[in-house]
Design brief:
Number of helices: 13
Helix content: 40-55%
Number of domains: 2
Structural class: alpha/beta
Radius of gyration: 17 Å
Shape: globular
Distance between the termini: 30 Å
Length: 242
Amino acid sequence: MRVGLLVTCLVDLMRPRIGFAAIELLESAGCTVVVPGAQTCCGQPGWNAGDRAAARALAEKVVVEFEQCDYLVAPSGSCAGMIKTHYPDLFQGEGAWLTRVEALSARSFELTDFLVNVMHVKTVPGRYQGTVTYHDACSGLRELGVKSQPRALLNQLPGVTLREMQDCETCCGFGGTFSVKFGEVSAAMAETKCERIAASGAEAVVLGDLGCMLNIEGRLRRRGDQVTKVLHIAELLTAQGD
């Protein structure tokens, strides 16, 4: 099975080890992983900003690069959600292009959803000892229904104790360009999220989108918390967060 990994812009630029962890997880599940070398952005920033032409150009590029793969997988609910739910809107009424887009969208998955519901993973390669809490990132939760999947994978790590925080499904305030356009509101939302994380007593907060990770970790550090780990679930499941 050939699985194309959409690394995502943020992972590539800010935390590449998430991409390597995703590859390790997919390979341990029995997949042959393909990483197109010229891949760039999925087009979501343009889409969210109303620049349909830019989003469309990048969407075409993604389709060309990944349509020969059996599946497209992204370690990000927001990027996977862009492809799965919004790409068809970009190509409405366009015949052949729409057919190609819909075919790829149907084979596109967020990482934990793919591991649980397509590959039916029962074991993961990582080892971790400690308490964690999980933040449900908005796009993965609301566009793709990613909720139980990461928790099912966490349950496969015998050393992990999951402590659910209050309001685990509430936005952290990142929201892509939202955090730039509405900085004060975003900061207040991030502060509330960090209060919930602290109240859980967990040693680490785990999640599936790097944008949320950067927002939460930045706020934790600014409020003086230098101890709480902020980990992508792929890092935890491969013990790269130790």
